[in-house]
Design a protein that fits this description.
The structure is a single chain. This protein is of the alpha+beta class. The chain folds into two domains: 1-45; 61-148. The protein has five helices and six strands, in the order βββββααβααα. A three-stranded antiparallel beta sheet has the order 1-2-3, with no helix packed on it. β4 (50-52) and β5 form a beta hairpin. α1 (63-73) packs across α2, α2 packs antiparallel against α3 and α4 runs antiparallel to α5. The longest helix has 17 residues, at 81-97. It is elongated and about 60 Å long.
Length: 154
């Protein structure tokens, strides 16, 4: 593996861990030339998932796009990056288990909202406000009321 800092091919593996339910490996490496450390990931290549957007356009599934949305929703909230990575992995696994090449974006959005509801209610509301595109305060209040009802029924 080439060092991303000095481009040397002389690197060593310090630690390897299985992640994403054993479907990937995270390796912590150190360059033997510049002594800087970096992380690499190994993952098997799977069939490309296509996301069908609301307007009918199609784009490749992106773990990073989901992670970015989660990070924004969870900004300054007590939610760890590991929790968010697990959410992304769970959602991707569910989508692949559907055995469909194309998936509607609303399925992904609802899956994200369900996970956020369990993790952090404020992050859930933040994500819902963007995802559901609340046009007015009444719609926002309906979502809050639903959140309170769901919480009290648990």
């Amino acid at each position: 593996m080439r060092c991303p800092f000095c481009q040397s091919d002389e690197t060593k593996v310090l630690d390897s861990r299985q992640i994403e339910a054993g479907t990937a490996i995270r390796r912590r490496r150190e360059c033997e030339v510049c002594s800087r450390r970096f992380t690499t990931y190994e993952k098997y290549e799977d069939v490309q998932l296509i996301v069908v957007k609301k307007g009918g356009t199609r784009e490749s599934f992106s773990r990073q796009k989901i992670m970015n949305g989660l990070l924004k929703a969870c900004e300054k909230r007590p939610v760890s990056t590991e929790q968010l990575e697990n959410v992304v992995s769970d959602i991707e696994r569910e989508l692949r288990d559907m055995n469909e090449r194309e998936v509607d974006s609303n399925i992904i959005g609802e899956a994200i909202m369900n996970r956020l509801f369990e993790i952090d209610e404020i992050a859930y509301i933040r994500f819902a406000s963007v995802y559901r595109q609340f046009r007015d305060i009444e719609r926002f209040m309906e979502e809050l009321d639903q959140l309170v009802k769901n919480k009290s029924s648990k």
